[in-house]
Amino acid sequence: MTHRARTIAFLAAAAAAVVIGASTQAQSPAPAQSTKPAQPAQPAQPAAKKKVLMVWGGWEGHQPKQTVDIFAPWLAAQGFDVEISNTLDSYLDAAKMKSLSLVVQAVTMGQITPQQEKGLLDAVRGGVGLAGWHGGLADAFRANPEYEFMVGGSWAAHPGNILDYAVRITKRDDPITKGLSDFRMKSEQYYMLVDPGVEVLATTTFSGQPLPAITGVVMPVVWRKLYGSGRVFNSTLGHSAADFDVAEAREIMKRGMLWAARVPGYGDDPKPTNPYAPIR
Q: What would the pLDDT profile of 84-102 be if each residue is shown by its tens digit?
């Protein structure tokens, strides 16, 4: 074969190889793209439940556990995470106290240590709500004036002991009392020493039996106030569990606890009644 013939044969073979290679590439499937499996959508996290600490103790005559047991299941049904305790040492856990929306206390004529009191005062001052009834809140710690200042009043007497008396709603358009009528109680009619800076929602008038000197005295029964950033709600009703068989007494307490826990729809911060302000 001449040199020219060999050159032509070589070029022909090279061209054939190029064609075959191109044909092979065209016929080969493209490599699969590497993909990660799709991640499932993360479910929305449920809103954290508001926490309530209910503390009972003190004088058994006020049936502290029985009265707490009236409201604990109801609070749980409203979506609260409810803890019930029969020791004031619960107030020592600063982190837990700070996490609460509400403290409900039913401790009459108790004794509280400085450390326990500080735990409660700091929590309420920092924004935790406080609510209670009868002696469980307003006759809890007679030797602790700062505690009494926080509550907005303290028990002084119940002349005549168990009496039939009327409770008059004084703020009928407030969410705590709206739709409720004046009502009657057969229980202790508390004579209170009351901070004029509270906002009064209901009152009672003393008949003078058995003390004529207090005839016509109008006394707060239900009030609310602020202590620092915390809302405080007090009702002097609730001498025993049977007091809450009265529908109005029970409903006021329910709504008051929701207000203190800052549940929307139950009212704004209080406006002091301030009964001694000059009339203009």
A: 999 999 999 999 999 999 9
